[in-house]
Model the fold of this input.
Amino acid sequence: NAGVMQNPRHLVRRRGQEARLRCSPMKGHSHVYWYRQLPEEGLKFMVYLQKENIIDESGMPKERFSAEFPKEGPSILRIQQVVRGDSAAYFCASSTVNTEAFFGQGTRLTVV
Amino acid sequence: QQQVKQSPQSLIVQKGGIPIINCAYENTAFDYFPWYQQFPGKGPALLIAIRPDVSEKKEGRFTISFNKSAKQFSLHIMDSQPGDSATYFCAAIPFSGSARQLTFGSGTQLTVLP
Done:
């Protein structure tokens, strides 16, 4: 049973480009969460999605960031017009309703 | 503001020592307190968790102590080993939440010397 799969593991983007981060939840999990980890800091909640619905996006920056979890395929976290401050590790977690969440290995985004 | 304060930022112990990591919270709506272990280049992995109706929970060499009145909880690692060297995060979830509501501490980088 594969765990939460995130890709790419490492992503380098120039300022102004778009970054797309993908997350495939564990089999049977319909809840997906995205967290951001800045260097030397803890993880900060960004967004919580179920299939085709955004449940809670209270941690998402208002500009440039968006997330989706379509009926088919992985969840996507999209960052438009990236800036240096977007450089971080982005973690996805998945769960069933009200069970423990399992984290993926993260995508390390570097903006140059 | 929902916040979990964690200390120390880093900790170095000898093999066999008992590192202790402390966390404090303010939001009384928090009802579930997990600890996560993270190795470099990996995602956080759930280590052990506690609810506030108990004062202590043990799983193997890991123990959580919980003081509800002080709104503090701590992780103790008995007989620590070099393989325990990792970053440890405490977290908290409100009663009505699932993982979406995880509020993490800032992390403690533990080094266990051989």
Remarks:
- DSSP finds no helices and eleven strands in chain A.
